[in-house]
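Hey all, quick one. A colleague (J.T.) asked me to put the oxa(dethia)-CoA job into the tracker so the inputs and the structure tokens live in one place instead of scattered across chat threads. No bug as far as I know, just bookkeeping. Sequence used:
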Amino acid sequence: MAGNIPLMIAGIGYCVPEAVITNEDLKKLYETSDEWIYTRTGIKERRVVSGNETAIDLGLKAAQNAILKANISTDEIDCIISASSVPPQLYPTLACTIQAKLGIKDTIPAFDMTAACTGLIYALQIARGFIGAGLYKTILIVAADNNSKITDWTDRGTSILFGDGAGAMVVKASVDGVDDILSLKISANGSIGQMIQTNMPSQCCPLVKQADEVGTGKIIMDGKEVYKFAVTTVPKYVEECIALSGLTAEEIDYLIPHQANQRIIESIQNRLKYTDDKVISNIRYYGNTSAASIPIALAEGVEQGKIKLGSTAVLCGFGAGMTWGGAVVRLREGIC
Ligand code: UT7
């Protein structure tokens, strides 16, 4: 427990856009094949926003679904944290925009924080601190990412991976004294941050010397290095999170990992010696939706009957920064 007041996960929701881009579709953009993409990543298709749709629309729907499941009124929300690495606009922030769209009149705090694909776990740690310290009672976390808008659609090494989506969680001061966070750890190593970069287009004041390079605003990734980082760091880290929880790996019901690459998911699965039914993977249909990937996998897993509630799960994420994090959580009945 981070403070004195334990936290309960009260509701989870998700939303993905309608438009589907299959591996076959990508052949219209560059030379590739379904076989190449699927064998290396486990991805068959991804969803993308289209027209005027943005991650804000997805985040709003995910938030409404989570609020419904949590069975609360929007008046009860006293803080909104958005975990988005790719919001459609820098400001007003995604959290402030969601606050307005939910019709929350109270001047509660609402802010965005970025930990890329680890965003949900970082946000959960912040919420845990806030609730634990008694600062806020009911926090809405929205993880909504618009990767397709900053993907370099000419780069076949990265554009095959990403998709858009949103997940949301309502967390509250626990009503029964039971803490739903059994353990939670977050980490970062900025010295290897160049592995995944998005440098925004910018300029210096026209009266001074300009920078040598101007950002493209697109994702630039050293896929091989990210892959090596993920398979060496994350499985070990997940084991540490499990040890911290006081449970053994066998006692935990599900692994719900960030959906970055099926082979990375399997490296964690193998380390934990989990059978397939304990591992939630939907990367085949959505690709990597950054911070949204864990809550989408969780909420959809429940919807599809792959996850039975009244259980425990280990969540883990990693991504740009580089950041990574893991949590062992209780999944109460009725949360999604
Ligand atoms: O949240 C974190 C997000 N990032 C990740 O999780 C990324 C982790 N990394 C990966 O998943 C893998 O590195 C990738 C799937 C991105 C790439 O797989 P790889 O085995 O590392 O391939 P590569 O980039 O080394 O490329 C191997 C070959 C190259 O050809 P040459 O130079 O050997 O002739 C590429 O040009 O495959 C070629 N290639 C492709 N061929 C067909 C790269 N992309 C494609 C493609 N279709 N889409």
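Adding what we noticed when we looked at it: The mean pLDDT is 96. The pocket of oxa(dethia)-CoA is lined by residues 32, 36-37, 40-41, 117, 156-157, 160-161, 221, 223-224, 226-227, 230, 260-261, 288, 319 (CB under 6 Å).
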